[in-house]
Amino acid sequence: MRTSEPLRLWVCCLMAALQLPAASTLGGTDPLPATAPRTEFSAPAPGSYRLAHIQPSADAVLLDSDGTPRHLKKLVAGKVTLLTFFYASCPDPLGCPFAFGMLHDLHHRLAPRPEVAGRLRFVSISMDPVHDTPAVLRQYAGDALQRRDIEWRYLTARSVPELLPLLDDFGQDVSVDLDARGRPTRVLHHMLKMFLIDARGEIREIYSLSFMQPEVIANDVHTLLMER
User: Fold this and answer.
1) Distance between CA 156 and CA 56 in Å, rounded?
2) How far are the Cα atoms of 5, 93, 129 from residue 37, in angstroms, in the given order?
3) 38 Cβ partners below 8 Å, 6+ apart?
4) What would the CATH number be for the domain defined by 5-20+51-226?
5) CA proximity to 170, closest of 207, 135, 134
6) Closest listed residue to residue 161, CA positions, set 186, 143, 124
7) Is this model's pTM higher than 0.85 or not?
8) Can you give the residue ranges of every domain in the chain?
9) Non-local CB neighbours of 169 within 8 Å, separated by 6+ positions
10) pLDDT tens digits, residue range 99-117?
Protein backbone atom coordinates (compact mmCIF):
# COMPACT_ATOMS: atom_id res chain seq x y z
CA MET A 1 0.00 0.00 0.00
CA ARG A 2 1.37 3.42 -0.91
CA THR A 3 1.71 6.02 1.84
CA SER A 4 -0.94 8.76 1.62
CA GLU A 5 0.22 12.13 0.26
CA PRO A 6 -0.28 14.17 3.49
CA LEU A 7 1.53 11.58 5.61
CA ARG A 8 4.35 11.20 3.09
CA LEU A 9 4.94 14.96 2.92
CA TRP A 10 4.74 15.24 6.71
CA VAL A 11 7.46 12.60 7.06
CA CYS A 12 9.54 14.32 4.36
CA CYS A 13 9.53 17.71 5.99
CA LEU A 14 9.81 16.37 9.52
CA MET A 15 13.10 14.77 8.43
CA ALA A 16 14.14 18.10 6.93
CA ALA A 17 13.31 19.84 10.20
CA LEU A 18 15.54 17.39 12.02
CA GLN A 19 18.38 18.27 9.60
CA LEU A 20 18.71 14.72 8.25
CA PRO A 21 20.81 14.63 5.07
CA ALA A 22 19.00 14.80 1.78
CA ALA A 23 18.56 11.54 -0.10
CA SER A 24 20.02 13.13 -3.23
CA THR A 25 22.80 15.70 -3.42
CA LEU A 26 22.20 17.48 -6.69
CA GLY A 27 25.58 19.17 -6.92
CA GLY A 28 24.61 21.32 -9.90
CA THR A 29 23.67 18.44 -12.21
CA ASP A 30 20.24 17.63 -13.54
CA PRO A 31 18.42 15.03 -11.41
CA LEU A 32 16.89 11.89 -12.84
CA PRO A 33 13.65 12.58 -14.74
CA ALA A 34 10.70 13.13 -12.42
CA THR A 35 8.09 10.39 -12.50
CA ALA A 36 4.67 12.03 -12.49
CA PRO A 37 1.73 10.38 -10.73
CA ARG A 38 -0.59 8.48 -13.03
CA THR A 39 -3.26 10.56 -14.71
CA GLU A 40 -6.58 9.47 -16.14
CA PHE A 41 -7.03 12.34 -18.61
CA SER A 42 -5.34 13.79 -21.68
CA ALA A 43 -4.10 17.35 -21.53
CA PRO A 44 -6.11 19.66 -23.82
CA ALA A 45 -4.27 21.40 -26.63
CA PRO A 46 -2.64 24.77 -25.79
CA GLY A 47 -4.93 27.70 -26.55
CA SER A 48 -8.10 25.54 -26.64
CA TYR A 49 -9.06 26.71 -23.12
CA ARG A 50 -8.59 29.63 -20.75
CA LEU A 51 -7.08 29.54 -17.29
CA ALA A 52 -8.94 31.16 -14.42
CA HIS A 53 -7.78 34.39 -12.81
CA ILE A 54 -7.24 33.20 -9.23
CA GLN A 55 -5.57 36.07 -7.37
CA PRO A 56 -2.71 38.56 -7.64
CA SER A 57 0.69 37.22 -6.63
CA ALA A 58 1.78 38.35 -3.17
CA ASP A 59 4.80 40.53 -2.49
CA ALA A 60 7.68 40.22 -0.03
CA VAL A 61 11.30 41.30 0.21
CA LEU A 62 13.43 38.16 -0.18
CA LEU A 63 17.15 37.49 -0.56
CA ASP A 64 18.42 36.34 -3.94
CA SER A 65 21.06 33.61 -4.15
CA ASP A 66 23.71 36.36 -4.17
CA GLY A 67 22.26 37.89 -0.99
CA THR A 68 20.64 40.88 -2.73
CA PRO A 69 17.17 41.91 -1.46
CA ARG A 70 14.51 41.49 -4.15
CA HIS A 71 10.82 42.38 -4.29
CA LEU A 72 8.97 39.22 -5.33
CA LYS A 73 6.31 41.30 -7.09
CA LYS A 74 8.93 42.65 -9.49
CA LEU A 75 10.54 39.24 -10.04
CA VAL A 76 7.30 37.64 -11.23
CA ALA A 77 6.32 40.48 -13.57
CA GLY A 78 6.90 40.55 -17.31
CA LYS A 79 7.20 36.79 -17.87
CA VAL A 80 5.14 33.68 -17.24
CA THR A 81 6.45 32.25 -13.95
CA LEU A 82 6.37 28.82 -12.32
CA LEU A 83 6.85 29.34 -8.58
CA THR A 84 7.48 26.71 -5.92
CA PHE A 85 8.32 26.63 -2.21
CA PHE A 86 10.93 24.11 -1.12
CA TYR A 87 13.49 22.89 1.43
CA ALA A 88 17.03 22.30 0.22
CA SER A 89 17.29 19.46 2.76
CA CYS A 90 14.01 17.70 1.86
CA PRO A 91 14.84 13.99 1.33
CA ASP A 92 11.48 12.70 0.02
CA PRO A 93 11.69 11.86 -3.73
CA LEU A 94 8.02 12.82 -4.04
CA GLY A 95 8.47 16.06 -2.12
CA CYS A 96 10.70 19.01 -2.95
CA PRO A 97 13.12 16.95 -5.11
CA PHE A 98 10.14 15.91 -7.23
CA ALA A 99 9.27 19.57 -7.91
CA PHE A 100 12.95 20.28 -8.67
CA GLY A 101 13.04 17.39 -11.15
CA MET A 102 9.73 18.52 -12.67
CA LEU A 103 11.14 21.97 -13.39
CA HIS A 104 14.21 20.42 -15.03
CA ASP A 105 11.86 18.27 -17.13
CA LEU A 106 9.92 21.36 -18.17
CA HIS A 107 13.16 23.17 -18.97
CA HIS A 108 14.17 20.40 -21.37
CA ARG A 109 10.70 20.42 -22.94
CA LEU A 110 10.24 24.16 -23.31
CA ALA A 111 13.67 25.82 -23.64
CA PRO A 112 14.23 24.69 -27.27
CA ARG A 113 10.94 26.23 -28.41
CA PRO A 114 11.45 29.72 -29.89
CA GLU A 115 8.05 30.96 -28.73
CA VAL A 116 9.15 30.33 -25.11
CA ALA A 117 12.65 31.85 -25.19
CA GLY A 118 12.94 34.80 -22.83
CA ARG A 119 9.27 34.60 -21.81
CA LEU A 120 9.34 32.00 -19.01
CA ARG A 121 11.06 31.94 -15.62
CA PHE A 122 11.21 29.61 -12.63
CA VAL A 123 11.19 30.95 -9.07
CA SER A 124 12.03 28.67 -6.11
CA ILE A 125 11.54 30.10 -2.60
CA SER A 126 12.99 28.37 0.45
CA MET A 127 10.68 27.70 3.38
CA ASP A 128 13.71 27.17 5.65
CA PRO A 129 15.57 30.49 5.94
CA VAL A 130 17.42 29.21 9.01
CA HIS A 131 19.28 26.60 6.96
CA ASP A 132 18.83 27.78 3.36
CA THR A 133 21.11 30.80 3.27
CA PRO A 134 22.07 32.40 -0.07
CA ALA A 135 25.25 30.31 -0.06
CA VAL A 136 23.24 27.10 0.37
CA LEU A 137 20.92 28.18 -2.43
CA ARG A 138 23.85 28.68 -4.80
CA GLN A 139 25.13 25.19 -4.06
CA TYR A 140 21.67 23.66 -4.40
CA ALA A 141 20.91 25.44 -7.68
CA GLY A 142 24.22 24.65 -9.36
CA ASP A 143 24.36 25.56 -13.04
CA ALA A 144 20.64 26.39 -13.16
CA LEU A 145 21.57 29.93 -12.10
CA GLN A 146 23.64 30.38 -15.26
CA ARG A 147 20.94 29.48 -17.75
CA ARG A 148 19.60 32.28 -19.90
CA ASP A 149 17.01 30.46 -22.03
CA ILE A 150 14.74 30.06 -18.99
CA GLU A 151 15.62 32.29 -16.05
CA TRP A 152 15.68 30.46 -12.70
CA ARG A 153 15.73 32.45 -9.44
CA TYR A 154 16.37 30.98 -5.99
CA LEU A 155 15.25 33.06 -3.01
CA THR A 156 15.15 32.84 0.76
CA ALA A 157 13.73 35.02 3.52
CA ARG A 158 15.77 36.82 6.14
CA SER A 159 13.80 35.13 8.93
CA VAL A 160 10.83 32.87 9.57
CA PRO A 161 8.61 35.75 10.83
CA GLU A 162 9.23 37.62 7.55
CA LEU A 163 8.41 34.50 5.54
CA LEU A 164 5.09 33.59 7.21
CA PRO A 165 2.94 36.41 5.74
CA LEU A 166 4.07 35.40 2.24
CA LEU A 167 3.15 31.75 2.86
CA ASP A 168 -0.24 32.86 4.14
CA ASP A 169 -0.84 35.03 1.07
CA PHE A 170 -0.10 32.04 -1.19
CA GLY A 171 -2.34 29.77 0.88
CA GLN A 172 0.62 27.54 1.67
CA ASP A 173 -0.41 25.63 4.81
CA VAL A 174 2.47 25.01 7.20
CA SER A 175 3.21 24.06 10.80
CA VAL A 176 5.60 26.34 12.65
CA ASP A 177 8.01 25.53 15.47
CA LEU A 178 7.96 28.10 18.32
CA ASP A 179 10.61 28.94 20.88
CA ALA A 180 10.01 29.27 24.63
CA ARG A 181 8.70 32.82 24.12
CA GLY A 182 6.24 31.77 21.43
CA ARG A 183 8.28 33.24 18.58
CA PRO A 184 8.36 31.33 15.26
CA THR A 185 11.73 29.69 14.66
CA ARG A 186 11.17 27.21 11.84
CA VAL A 187 8.56 25.98 9.39
CA LEU A 188 8.16 22.26 10.02
CA HIS A 189 6.23 20.95 7.02
CA HIS A 190 4.19 22.00 4.01
CA MET A 191 2.05 20.58 1.22
CA LEU A 192 3.80 20.50 -2.15
CA LYS A 193 2.32 23.04 -4.59
CA MET A 194 3.39 24.78 -7.78
CA PHE A 195 1.97 28.16 -8.84
CA LEU A 196 1.59 29.33 -12.45
CA ILE A 197 1.72 33.14 -12.66
CA ASP A 198 1.07 35.18 -15.79
CA ALA A 199 3.16 38.10 -17.03
CA ARG A 200 0.92 40.56 -15.17
CA GLY A 201 1.71 38.88 -11.86
CA GLU A 202 -1.60 37.07 -11.43
CA ILE A 203 -1.85 33.45 -10.28
CA ARG A 204 -3.64 31.43 -12.97
CA GLU A 205 -3.19 27.84 -11.80
CA ILE A 206 -2.15 25.97 -8.65
CA TYR A 207 -0.84 22.41 -9.01
CA SER A 208 -0.81 19.85 -6.22
CA LEU A 209 1.28 16.69 -6.46
CA SER A 210 -1.49 14.74 -8.22
CA PHE A 211 -1.69 17.35 -11.01
CA MET A 212 2.02 18.02 -11.55
CA GLN A 213 1.96 16.47 -15.00
CA PRO A 214 4.68 17.80 -17.35
CA GLU A 215 2.40 17.83 -20.39
CA VAL A 216 -0.38 19.61 -18.49
CA ILE A 217 1.94 22.31 -17.13
CA ALA A 218 3.69 22.77 -20.48
CA ASN A 219 0.33 23.24 -22.24
CA ASP A 220 -0.78 25.72 -19.57
CA VAL A 221 2.44 27.71 -20.07
CA HIS A 222 1.83 27.82 -23.84
CA THR A 223 -1.79 28.83 -23.26
CA LEU A 224 -0.68 31.85 -21.20
CA LEU A 225 1.96 32.78 -23.78
CA MET A 226 -0.75 32.76 -26.46
CA GLU A 227 -2.93 35.24 -24.54
CA ARG A 228 -3.06 38.79 -25.84
Assistant:
1) 21
2) 11, 12, 30
3) none
4) 3.40.30.10
5) 207
6) 186
7) no
8) 5-20+51-226
9) 58
10) 888 898 999 999 999 999 8
